[in-house]
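Support request, please re-run this one:
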Amino acid sequence: MDRTAKPEALQGLIEKFEDRTARVGILGLGYVGIPLAIAIAREGFPVLGFDILKERTEQINRGESPIKHFSDEDIAEILAAGFEATTEFNRSGECDALIICVPTPLYGSREPDLSFVRATMDVIAPHFRAGQLLSLESTTWPGTTREVLLPYVEGAGRMAGEDFFLVYSPEREDPGNSEFTTRTIPKVAGGLTENCLAAGLALYSAFVDTVVSVSSTEAAELVKLVENIYRAVNIGLANEMKIVADAMALDIFEVIDAAKTKPFGFDAYYPGPGIGGHCIPVDPFYLTWKAREFGIHTRFIELAGEINASMPQYVVDKLVEALNAAGKPLNGARVLVLGVAYKRDMDDMRESPSVLVMERLRDRGADVDYSDPNVPVFPAMRSHRFDLASVELTAENIARYDAVMLLTDHSDFDYELIRRNSAVLVDTRGKFHRDGGVVRA
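Re-run finished. Output below.
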């Protein structure tokens, strides 16, 4: 790479990335930060991980993985390579590159909540120094890097593109997907300036096979939103088709399975009890919020959001109908929910529709329990509370409930056992869609 026209700070930083001597700081050790730390450490970089949760950093430093789909062996491997987790954000000045992977949720009004990003910037900005790269990976609205992060950089007396390098590179993790890894998933990156982009490309190309550059941080920010809005809209369409098919006494899973045999022009998306995870229920509204600044009402996105948000109530109503047909009211009924994680074979409960279903059942007087092999105890959550532990799935335990609802179709469930012993079985995932007597929801 020709470095003759590059600032001295950029030349030195690129050299550190190329010879793997740059120390990389990961800010946020969750579902994005941990796989990043593993991928970067495996390439020989010294890595320092930051998190506000002391119990999490202590757990990692003991060699214990806080996330199901990464093993203790994965953590032990990077610890042996020199990785360390800390709550001391003042150590960010030790790092040549800093990658922010903190949550970006919504307020109750569906407006972006950048409090985690701002809080992170508050504690690291006093330690900015010449020759550092800062990359934001958290999903956000177009303009965040320039409008929110850049003032911190300038306030620290640094000049983006000259002695400090500012990048946006959206995370693309798919937890539990063994086919695609941090290394093999193409990485999009946009820089605040050409020099910022050059620094970002040098960093990410060191541990990702394919890095796709775009013209600006705003373009990179919009890439992530477009990806997730595409999924949200198609899931919303599948959920609406489920309602239509049910009214016609048709099996939507049979219909979609047949439609996807078309080798072009159709991608299969399946309905469920709602949408979960940190991205799909949240990210579309970052764009709808920003679009209002330009006088644009994003009706298509918001309609999909309304449909997806209505699904927990739809499946509760289907349960009420099924119980009524069995001569039982929902009030006082014992209901067992199968699966509280938002995704099959995961322990991730962020924005899980199962929790919303459980709350609606509880509010209407049902006695609710759950079974999930990946979530042995219902965790503390910011907006939801259940003092419950997972029920073991035995014939005797299943038979004790007036109704069983399949909300997340984990591979570890014994579906034949569930089918044989459920008095009323409500299926929101199409696992029993060929079985008569099962209530499709």
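The CA atoms of residues 81 and 438 lie 52 Å apart. The two ends are 57 Å apart (CA to CA).
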